[in-house]
Amino acid sequence: MTIKVLALCGSGRRDSLNRKLLDVAARGAHEAGGEITFISSADYRLPLYEGDFEHEHGVPDTVRNLQRLFAEHTALLIASPEHNGGYTASLKNTIDWISRPLASGEPGIRLIATKVAAVVSASPGPMGGVRSMLGMRGVLEKLGAIVIPQGFSLGAAHLAFTEAGRLSDEKADAEVRLVGARLVETTRQLSRQQAERGCATHTPSRPIESDA
Ligand SMILES: Cc1cc2nc3c(=O)[nH]c(=O)nc-3n(C[C@H](O)[C@H](O)[C@H](O)COP(=O)(O)O)c2cc1C
């Protein structure tokens, strides 16, 4: 069973450390049989979410395209950079827009609630963006995603990569690849169970509250 993984980098910066870390995790996902689609915040531009903007202009086409992309994938692998002790405004804004109702009227939140997800983070700082990683896990869990326990926060990331895009610490490289591999294996396992039960995708184990 091929598992489609959407690998989302919260930084669109050239030479992004989070993109490099995402590549390592995605390598693990690929080795486990995942089919990876990469996307970063450089691939789209979104207005800052405001209720009045949505009321007056509707949901932008860019968001509709992102919602379609999310719908086409079962697993979500996020590299979440840290800004001032939390995830970036840009990444959260992306998720906020995606959670808005689909063109069909269905809740956009289901695009996250039906996912199995993993989060990694990289920073030149000593803690590697761990606060961003944990914060982003909390957001995904709140939306109903199954977030696997494995994750990785890479400190001193500006010194960590070889020219070939691997982590020079082989143990760390294996651990990050394992995040991707576990994501694919867990998604495959859940998809099999759900296929046996006759439902197409991961169904949230609890009701999704729209405003709690
Ligand atoms: C506004 C701002 C705030 C930042 N705050 C933090 C922080 O709280 N913790 C941290 O580890 N790094 C922080 N950084 C450093 C970023 O983690 C660093 O620039 C990182 O390389 C960004 O990710 P990227 O390389 O994928 O673009 C901050 C950077 C900026 C621009």
UniProtKB/TrEMBL annotation:
Region (Disordered): 190-212
GO cellular component terms, semicolon-separated: cytosol
Gene3D superfamilies assigned: 3.40.50.360
Annotated ranges, domain NADPH-dependent FMN reductase-like: 3-157
Domain of life: Bacteria
Coiled coil region boundaries: none
Molecular function per GO: FMN binding; oxidoreductase activity
PANTHER family: CHROMATE REDUCTASE (PTHR30543), NAD(P)H-DEPENDENT FMN REDUCTASE LOT6 (PTHR30543:SF21)
Name listed for the protein in its UniProt record: NAD(P)H-dependent FMN reductase
